[in-house]
C-alpha cells in the first residue's frame, strides 16, 4: 500500500516561491500522494518583481491545479515588523529578524487558503537543516493542527541542485534555474539575506557578489544626507514630513538607506537546530527605523523603563527567531512592548553617511530630558546638597558590611 493511500491526502496547499525547490516539490507531491491536487500559494511580502513575474504560470507548468498570489506587504510591515520593532529585538545583538518575521505571516495566510479550499494538508520547501521548518510548522500547529504537514526535504532522496534539475528535466517541466546559482537568497520588503558560496568559510571575506541592495559604504556619497522620521506610539508614520503607510515608510527609507550603504551585517548566527550559519543581511530602511526609535526612547523612557525594554527586546528576539509567533509568550512580551511604546512619539533627524546612521536631533512632547536640570551651568532647580543623603542611603549596605568587618 502506498503512502498516499495510507494518508488519504487529496488536496495539498504548498508554500510556493517559483524557485527550483518548490518547482520540484509540486510533481513530487503528486507522484507520492496518489496524484493529489496541489494548490500553489505565493505570498507577496515585497520580494522583487522578477521573483513574482510569471509565477502563476510556473506553478501551473509544474503541475499545480491553481496558484494564488496574495498581497501581504502592508500587513507584513504593520502587523509583524512594527510590533517587533517596538520591542527593540535584535537576535544575537545584530540580526533584525527579516526572515524570522516573514515566515509566520506566510504560513498564516497559507493556512487560511487551505481552510478556504478544503485542503487536507500543508507543504513547504524548507530544508531539514534550517530554522524555517520550525517557523512554518509552528504556525501550522497553532492555527490548524488538524491539517497534515508534508516537508519533502525531510522525505525525498533529492539532495543536490543537480538532482533537482535532472528531476524536472526528466518530467519535461521547464525551469529558469541553472547550476550557476552560487548563493541562497531570501528577499522581502524588510531585508535581503545572502548565504552560501564564499560565505561558507568564516575565513573568507564577503565580496561584492554578497551584497545586493546596498551601495558599498566606501563608494557611497561623500556628503551626508539628513532624514526626518516621525513616530507615533512606537510606530514610524512619516518620512521627511510626509505621512505614509508602514510599507511606504519602509520603502522610502530603504531607498535612502541603500544609497548610503546603511544596514549591512555579516554574521555567524546560532540556528535553532544547533548548527552555526553565516549570512550577509541588508536591512537599510529597518536600520534607520531602529535608530530613530531608539533615539526617541533615550529622551522619553526613564532608566528602569529603558532597562525593561532592553530585556523585552532580548526575549522577543529569541521568541521570533524560534518561530513562536502565535505562542502566548510572544503575545505577553508584545503587550509589554506596546505599553512602553505608548509614550514614544515625536520626531528624529538622522544623518546617513557611508554605512552609518546617527540620530542627531530628537524632540517629543513626552520627553523627560530637562535642560534646566542637566545643564553644567548655574541653575536654581537642583540642590547639590541633596545628593549626600541619597548616596548615604544608596550605599548603606556597603557601610554596614564595612563596619562589621572592622569589628
From TrEMBL:
The listed locations are: Cytoplasm
Family membership = Belongs to the argininosuccinate synthase family. Type 1 subfamily.
- Fetch the Gene3D superfamilies from UniProt: Argininosuccinate synthetase, chain A, domain 2, HUPs, Single helix bin
Which top EC class applies here? ligase
Residues where ATP binds: 15-23, 43, 125
Keywords of the record, alphabetical order, are: Amino-acid biosynthesis, Arginine biosynthesis, ATP-binding, Cytoplasm, Ligase, Nucleotide-binding
> Under the GO molecular function aspect, what terms does this record hold?
argininosuccinate synthase activity; ATP binding
The protein's predominant localisation is cytoplasm
Q: Which gene encodes it?
A: argG
Q: Which GO terms describe its cellular component?
A: cytoplasm
Q: What is its EC number?
A: 6.3.4.5
One GO biological process this protein is involved in is: urea cycle
Q: Among its keywords, does the record have Cytoplasm?
A: yes
Describe which pathway this protein belongs to, using the record's wording. Answer: Amino-acid biosynthesis; L-arginine biosynthesis; L-arginine from L-ornithine and carbamoyl phosphate: step 2/3
Q: What is this protein called?
A: Argininosuccinate synthase
- Reaction(s) catalysed by this chain's protein: L-citrulline + L-aspartate + ATP = 2-(N(omega)-L-arginino)succinate + AMP + diphosphate + H(+)
- Which Pfam families does the entry mention? Arginosuc_syn_C (PF20979), Arginosuc_synth (PF00764)
Q: Which organism is it from?
A: Morganella morganii subsp. morganii KT
Binding sites annotated in the UniProt record for L-citrulline: 95, 100, 131, 135, 184, 193, 269, 281
Amino acid at each position: 500500500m502506498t503512502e498516499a493511500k495510507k494518508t488519504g491526502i487529496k488536496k495539498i496547499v504548498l508554500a510556493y516561491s517559483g524557485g527550483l525547490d518548490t518547482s520540484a516539490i509540486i510533481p513530487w507531491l503528486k507522484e507520492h500522494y496518489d496524484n493529489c491536487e496541489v494548490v500553489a500559494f505565493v505570498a507577496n511580502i515585497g520580494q522583487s518583481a522578477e521573483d513574482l513575474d510569471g509565477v502563476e504560470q510556473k506553478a501551473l507548468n509544474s503541475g499545480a491545479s491553481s496558484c494564488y498570489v496574495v498581497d501581504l506587504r502592508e500587513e507584513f510591515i504593520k502587523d509583524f515588523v512594527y510590533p517587533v520593532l517596538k520591542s527593540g529585538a535584535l537576535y544575537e545583538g545584530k540580526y533584525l529578524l527579516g526572515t524570522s518575521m516573514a515566515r509566520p505571516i506566510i504560513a498564516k495566510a497559507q493556512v487560511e487558503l487551505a481552510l478556504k479550499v478544503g485542503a487536507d494538508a500543508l507543504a513547504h520547501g524548507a530544508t531539514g537543516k534550517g530554522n524555517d521548518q520550525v517557523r512554518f510548522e509552528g504556525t501550522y500547529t497553532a492555527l490548524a493542527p488538524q491539517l497534515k504537514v508534508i516537508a519533502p526535504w525531510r522525505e525525498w532522496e533529492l539532495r543536490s541542485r543537480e538532482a533537482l534539475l535532472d528531476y524536472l528535466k526528466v518530467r519535461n517541466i521547464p525551469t529558469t534555474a541553472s547550476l550557476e546559482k552560487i548563493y541562497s537568497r531570501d528577499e522581502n520588503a524588510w531585508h535581503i539575506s545572502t548565504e552560501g558560496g564564499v560565505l561558507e568559510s568564516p575565513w573568507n571575506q564577503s565580496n561584492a557578489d554578497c551584497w545586493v541592495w546596498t551601495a558599498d559604504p566606501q563608494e557611497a556619497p561623500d556628503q551626508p544626507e539628513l532624514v526626518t522620521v516621525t513616530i507615533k506610539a512606537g510606530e514610524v508614520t512619516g518620512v521627511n514630513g510626509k505621512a505614509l503607510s508602514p510599507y511606504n515608510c519602509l520603502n522610502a527609507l530603504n531607498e535612502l538607506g541603500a544609497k548610503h550603504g546603511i544596514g549591512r551585517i555579516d554574521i555567524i548566527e546560532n540556528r535553532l537546530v544547533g548548527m552555526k550559519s553565516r549570512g550577509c543581511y541588508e536591512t537599510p530602511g529597518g536600520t534607520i527605523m531602529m535608530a530613530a526609535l531608539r533615539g526617541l526612547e533615550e529622551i522619553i523612557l526613564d532608566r528602569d523603563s529603558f532597562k525593561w525594554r532592553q530585556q523585552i527586546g532580548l526575549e522577543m528576539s529569541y521568541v521570533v527567531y524560534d518561530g513562536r509567533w502565535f505562542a502566548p509568550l510572544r503575545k505577553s512580551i508584545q503587550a509589554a512592548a506596546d505599553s512602553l511604546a505608548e509614550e514614544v512619539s515625536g520626531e528624529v533627524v538622522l544623518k546617513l553617511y557611508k554605512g552609518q546612521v546617527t540620530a542627531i536631533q530628537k524632540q517629543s512632547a513626552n520627553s523627560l530630558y530637562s535642560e534646566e536640570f542637566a545643564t553644567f551651568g548655574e541653575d536654581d532647580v537642583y540642590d547639590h546638597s541633596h545628593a549626600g543623603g541619597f548616596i548615604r542611603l544608596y550605599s548603606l549596605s556597603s557601610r554596614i558590611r564595612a563596619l562589621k568587618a572592622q569589628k
